[in-house]
Design a protein that fits this description.
Layout lengths: L75 E10 L3 H14 L7 E2 L3 E4 L4 E4 L3 H12 L5 E12 L5 E10 L1 H17 L12 E8 L3 H4 L2 H12 L3 H4 L1 E4 L1 E6 L2 E6 L2
Antiparallel strand pairs: 1-3, 1-4, 1-9, 2-7, 5-6, 5-8, 6-7, 9-10
Helix pairs in contact: 1-5, 2-3
InterPro entries: Usb1
Keywords: Hydrolase, Lyase, Nuclease, Nucleus
GO molecular function, one term: 3'-5'-RNA exonuclease activity
């Protein structure tokens, strides 16, 4: 069902992991090749996007055979709005338990290196729209207060064109506040004639991913075992009750931060 589709991870989010930046639900991102292209909505900022003036060749062998969701053109900046989740040591321990168990079902799974909860799809902005887009976001988000949500339900997602599968933690509390935020972000997207977020979204933090549609292997027994790990993890209640303190927008290689009050 499209409602569980992942935020439109573009195809080449995986490039700059090495930079270890911050994303993209923003990324957050799969391990990747070299030069830039529009990336996954990054977890706390997906690893690096290319400068629009960088080379624009699109050799799929350079990024794990992934296919780009939209053509990369000079002057087009892959843009994503998300809530960054800063992983603590205990969260990384939980992640390791989950990924090692899930790999007994899908050996090609890779853990995300950054974590976020997406509030937009990955959209394309022309360079000269970035500043007005960010200004409009800042105005609309200025009144929002910090809030908590709980992300403790393991769920399997595929991106829209079924070229990747993700394991994520779905939000079980705080959905209403997230919808309110999305409503404001959607308002900005509409001003710029860009696609708004999914209807009835499944808000989540992606934990791991693989190439291809392997949801069939991860659902059912695997998913039950992963949920048992989360439910039994000593620090879960503390780790997965998250207070969001800022919203972030990543556009190309630029990051913009909007603190919540």
């Amino acid at each position: 069902a499209m409602s569980t589709a992942l935020v439109g991870y573009s195809s080449s989010e995986e490039e700059q992991e090495e930079e270890g930046e911050s994303r993209g639900g923003g990324a957050q991102g799969p391990p990747g090749a070299s030069a830039g292209r529009p990336r996954l909505p990054a977890p706390a900022g997906l690893p690096g996007d290319p400068d629009p003036e960088e080379a624009v060749s699109d050799d799929s062998s350079r990024h794990g055979g992934r296919v780009r969701g939209f053509p990369h053109e000079r002057g087009n900046w892959a843009t994503h709005v998300y809530l960054p989740y800063i992983a603590q040591e205990e969260f990384l321990e939980l992640l390791e338990l989950l990924v090692s168990r899930a790999r007994t079902y899908v050996p090609s799974l890779a853990a995300m290196e950054e974590f976020h909860l997406s509030l937009s799809q990955c959209v394309v902005l022309r360079y000269h729209w970035i500043e007005p887009f960010v200004r409009s976001l800042r105005e609309r988000l200025a009144a929002f207060h910090r809030f908590f949500c709980v992300a403790d339900q393991v769920k399997v997602y595929t991106n829209q064109n079924k070229t990747r599968t993700f394991i994520g933690l779905e939000v079980s509390a705080g959905h209403f506040q997230l919808l309110e935020l999305v409503s404001e972000v959607d308002g900005v997207l509409e001003e710029f004639d860009l696609p708004t977020f999914y209807k009835d979204p499944s808000f989540h933090i992606s934990l791991a991913w693989c190439v291809g549609d392997l949801s069939g292997r991860l659902e059912g027994q695997c998913l039950r075992e992963l949920q048992d790990i989360v439910d039994g993890f000593e620090e879960s209640a503390f780790l997965l009750r998250i207070q969001w303190e800022q919203i972030r927008c990543k556009s190309g290689n630029k990051y913009f931060s909007f603190p919540l009050r």
